[in-house]
Amino acid sequence: MFYPERNSFVKFGIIALSLFAVGCATYYQKNIKFQENFIKGDFDQAARALDKNKGAAKGNNRLLYFLQKGVVLQLQGNFEESNRYLEDAYLFTEDIQKNYAREAFSLLSNPMVVPYKGEDFESVLIHYYKALNYLGLNQYEEALVECRRINIKLNQINDKYEKRKNRYKRDAFAYNLMGIIFEAAKDYNNAFISYRNAYETYQQDYKPFFEVETPSQLKRDLLKTAYLNGFTEELAQYEKIFGMKYTHQKNEGGELIFFWNNGLGPVKDEWSISFFILKGKGRLVTFVNEEYGFSFPFMLDSGSDNSVTLTDLKFVRVAFPKYRERKPYYRNAGITASNKEYPLELAQNINEIAFKTLEDRMIRELANSLLRLAFKQAAEKAVSKKVENLGALLSIANALSEKTDTRNWQTLPYSISYARIPLPSGENTVEFKSLSPVTQASSLRASNAISFKFNINKGETIFRMFHTLDSIPLEQ
User: Fold this and answer.
1) How many domains would you assign to the chain?
2) What does pTM read for this prediction?
């Protein structure tokens, strides 16, 4: 049997330390050039930074490549090509199969060695971006296909968490978007159903969990579609609930639905938790952290190397993902059209959803991390029995590789707001006005303004998405 010489161990140590310097960087840090260009609004350079890595579309981060590329292309106004990449992202989330060899290897290293599958809310928002692309191309039927995919995805999420606590199991904004598109397509029955689902989700989930109230525009849309469907009982019921009396007004012109993507969503980082290991009776060991009140008991296999290794340890460090918030520069905004102001109402707080969903699965993540640690310790013990120095080096390598998955969709906005604006037929100029935290004026008239021109036909609904990328830097 071959045994490495002393200088081989030295070389191994140098290599391990150099790999550690690179390996400890988060996904955000590894893609900092892309992030810098994207935040500046230089989408051409951002696209080049993405494409510089030729293996990105095939590696473990290919889902994120598809998502980031799709967003960049949309912001460049290339809706068709954007949807090609977003469709690749959708198909990947649908077709991904577990590679058990890689899953097992991740227990011995870290979760970054397996393909990124995406967060639940990320998989829903794929269809938001796709639907907006189709609406930008005036392809309502294709946009409705994305609505139906949203419905399917939401049902899958509901089934997934039927018996496990998770606050994100329905998406109020997705239901609202479905209602808006169904209404634009004159499908008032499905629009009413979608608006009703959105209202219930805002009230039951979004208000208590994600700090998002039911938009007043949604209430008006729910009343309107109840009226248009001839649902007199439902109309009276919701008028009473909302404290609003609906009077139908025929629109002689068209409507603009304006979506405002504000700021940038959070990025994943890493933190670590130290656990003391308490030996119990028989084969029971318990990982305990008093600061956070965590206690994880494990029953070890009889006669396994795990039993010896874990009971010999006093404490261990486990890596876990955390989000870092990127606070938006603008606090609210509105649209001015025909000398009237229409506030953009918050409909989706992506930042809050990200933090809460990670919180909900924290216990499961910790359990997985501890299991990964147990596998590492067992491997160290098995190797050290054969080659003492190699076991020590494996212990160092395991400590260096103990990291968590810091990947996430980092071109998502912090929040999404919207407004429905009636416009007369013909050419219209509207102004988007945003308020920064330092703006003292209560009126949007004193804020930063950007003009848009829209040509609208009678009875037509047009859509526009606008993304303000300004955020307070992570360091602050």
Assistant:
1) 2
2) 0.83
